[in-house]
């Protein structure tokens, strides 16, 4: 299977590229910034074939040329901007351009060359204020109420993608990704909302103690599971379900994850903040949204996550140490 991955130098994109190469696929990794050297070195050891292309998804001629040259069977359209509260206003116009117009441009090019299956990564951010109304966030019964520029663009991108099912005959599924963490997350200035686990490991690398403002219990989803879910969705040709939540189906607290990660990374120190003390780990909000329902993912799609609390802590700590050693030579 030949797959084009847009946004391939991004966090989720790198995980999808790696997972596809690991099972021997031919991957065209398209991005507007270079893939990190440590990722290219790791990917070179995998059985699949990798081609890297420079691409700005709002350049319609370049996008069409990419698809005409490679004529993929499948597409993961991961190119997106993810501004947080500090960048939201100044990057609003560019975010709208990339996340909405860029999506239409890419999907049009995909349709023209007969791409057989497309996964559009949406986000649980589209649930917005309704994510705090209680109960599982369900694809059918929980009404999206996006609030931020990012969430608004992802919902618009999702609706655009689903419209292309009708006007272009594309077989598209929108995957609403939960809060992702794990390998290949890095500080690039593009993603302002780095996961708490990345922050904690970064503090440990610098010899600093992680101070958590609170326990923070959510259904964090590991990046390797996200990549696995994406491949499972790409493998399917059924038109339904058109929208699928991607999460672990379990909730655990960041403080529990710290305790597990410390088993594999003895230098990791952490504690909860004392009353009145500000923590040094940004949890991106002072309350926790509800977990997503995953019955479509595990039932209709047939994908079961495997990296939960202990598994993700162990794997991420080991990956971090190996990658750090590689960076240090």
Task: Give the SSE layout.
Elements: E1 2-6, H1 11-22, E2 26-31, H2 37-43, E3 49-54, H3 60-70, E4 74-77, H4 92-112, E5 117-123, H5 149-167, E6 172-177, E7 180-181, H6 196-205, E8 210-212, E9 217-218, E10 221-222, H7 223-235, E11 243-246, E12 252-253, H8 254-264, E13 270-272, H9 295-301, H10 309-328
Parallel strand pairs: 1-2, 1-4, 2-3, 4-5, 5-6, 6-11, 7-10, 8-13
Antiparallel strand pairs: 9-12
Helix pairs in contact: 1-7, 3-4, 4-5, 8-10
| Lateral strand order in the biggest sheet | 3-2-1-4-5-6-11
SSE sequence, one letter per element: EHEHEHEHEHEEHEEEHEEHEHH
Give the low-confidence spans.
Answer: none
Could you tell me how far the N terminus lies from the C terminus, measured between alpha carbons in angstroms?
35 Å
Oligomer: single chain
Instruction: Tell me, rounded to a whole number, the average pLDDT.
Output: 96
Helix amount:
25-40%
Structural Rg: 19 Å
What's the total count of β strands? 13
Quickly give the structural class.
Answer: alpha/beta
Main beta sheet: 7 strands, parallel
Shape by Cα distribution: globular
